[in-house]
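Q: What would this chain look like folded?
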Amino acid sequence: MRRLTILVAVVLACGCGKKRLPQPAQDTAAPVEAPAASTEPSERDTLLTTLKTKQGDTRRKAAEALAELAESDPTVLDALVELLKDKHTSGPGKTHPTQTTSTREAAALALLWAGPPGEAALKDKGFSALREGLSDKDPAIREHTAHTVGVLGPLAKPLVGSVQRLCSDSDTNVREAAFDTVRALGPADVTGIAALLTNENPEIRQRAAEVIAALPDVPGDAVPSLTRALDDEVEFIRVAAATGIATAGGKGGSNATGEKLAGAIKKSYPEMFDSTKPARLDGPEFIYWRAMVVLGKPAVAPTTALLSHPNPIVRYFAARTLAELGPDAKAAADALNSALSDSIANVSLEAACTLCRLGEKPDESVKLVRAALASASPGVAAAAIDTIARMGPVGKPLIPDALAKLASPLPDARYAAVALVGTLNPADAAKQVPELIKLLADPEPLIRGQVAAVLESLGPTAAQAAEALGKAITADTEGLLRDQFVEALIAMGPAAKPAVPGLLPLITNASATVDSRVKVIEAVTVADPASPDVAAALVKAASDPNLSIRKAAGLALGKLDPLSDAARDALVKLARKDTEVYVRRAAVRGLVSAGPRAKAARTDLEAIATGKLPGLDLWAKVALAGIDGDVRRAAGAVRDGLGSKSGTNVRTAAAEALLVVGPMSADVPALMKLLKDPGANGAAAVALGRIGPEAKPAVPHLIELLNDRDGEVRGAAAEALGRIGPSALPAATKLRTMTRSDPLVAPTARKALERLGVKEKT
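A: My prediction, written as structure tokens:
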């Protein structure tokens, strides 16, 4: 407390003519004021100061603390809004995707994390402050403000128009930040971005192309600019323009668009065929043909003209594209008839296929395909088989001859015949399973892999192959093929039970890869969850030195039915005592799967639910709800966890647990925020995929995750895009590329393309 001021009185003596009495000694000290008590700065002020003066993780932690403090101290929100005008940054070119590099970014994050009150403050006053920053005379301020808008995510969509104007800023760093934000949130004006494809600055054209290639929707008004961009000398720009035209779905297209697409094709394919560079249907240039198909009637004439191109690859794709164009392509009938005599079998067969689909002279075409089936020349019979699958009803009489090629001495013909089986209806395909079983021992690994892929697509229909697959897994030395065989068994479900004896030894096989052993654990659990032998193998795996094996065992044990005492005890031991938190979490998730069968573990789960391991406690709450018969009782705790300030582990656990309690369209905004949260983004992607088409707003963000360094995250994004459906078609180009350039994610990318209705080979 402040002390009272002490005044020292001075008494003056005076008299009339009398000797002045000696004065008392005067205290010359100044009046004394009690010292002010030291005032400690409030927690609020300390944190706000940290936001302005500190960098990196310290600043980010202060933002998290302020977001939490705002719940009890609303004045924090006003202070944070004011800091959105602060000009402290890490400097030009210093924005970073995982580090907080300016005061305004930290303040924006704190407001975002503060929940609905913080979001309301941003919309009410914060956005106007950020708009001012976007027009600041200092380039570094404009750059960091544009970056901050991107960090805010979908909430900041109203600011994207102001950010987009900076895409042509005079400063390189500002442009980079602006384009990053526009790509993440989606442009406010697609037509404006399309116009940048013809900007004189090559860097701007490049960045605009990155945005256009990832858009889920393109208006017809943008197509004229995209058409002009097809003249660019840089193929990436041309490909992006064609992608945008394809995404537009035929809107805004013209005869000029068709002619320009044909011109882009001529630029991309050399006039002379190069046998050392085989054509790929997943190459970036394939988008030109896809754009032609989407364009429709205006594409018929320029595509027909390409039937006379010197390069047979171009002629082949031209014939194939005309088939996709449908009845409008009947105008090309004469040119296609001429192509029946092409010296290259692939071209003539494709022309025959197209004529059949158009209903033009099918008898002559069928005769040509039948003759090709009997050819002993490499590639010809295979091309004929591939053609049959796309000829329509007139090709059905040729199927028996094509299936006879399953025993052909030509490897490419056997491969094509196996693929043909995969196109048949399940009943007819099942009749060919005995022949496919024989090919599990084919000397060509590609053929064995194709057999596995077809068996996987057939699922339980291919049950008679289960035992043979189990033996093939043991005998095959190709690790990747083993995995494909196991995937086929997993697809068969309980029908794969005959394969279990052959699979069990692989769980402890030290020569097998960890990934293979993990897949085998999943396969045997799906195939025979009631087997005592499976239960014993999983209990043993629960004490394996490798944490990935223990994690897989933890997830699998909970699926056993019945859940033996030994299996439950192994789960509880993993959940409470394992040294790796990931294993413990998997074990608790196993107990979630067990549901009421895990009643005897209630006490242990209650201890975990009140423990101090973030994320694990949330899963334990879900498991307890499951024991009581309804995991949905934990839905509130799970959804609270999606926006938790307690760290990534909690948010990741919440995104994963959401799959158990049931994700809904209302969860999309929260999950989209988590796509920017390293560690939680993969789980968020999976949850968005489960929501399906209603997760359409997340498509641009998921496409961005296809470039993530983590393979599991890339795979989760690819799967989610496939599940979302047609609105994710802009991802097709990237997914095609991944099928050949990303071995880890390639199978998932292929499945995603199938779900999108985009075949790897069309």
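The chain has 43 helices and no strands.
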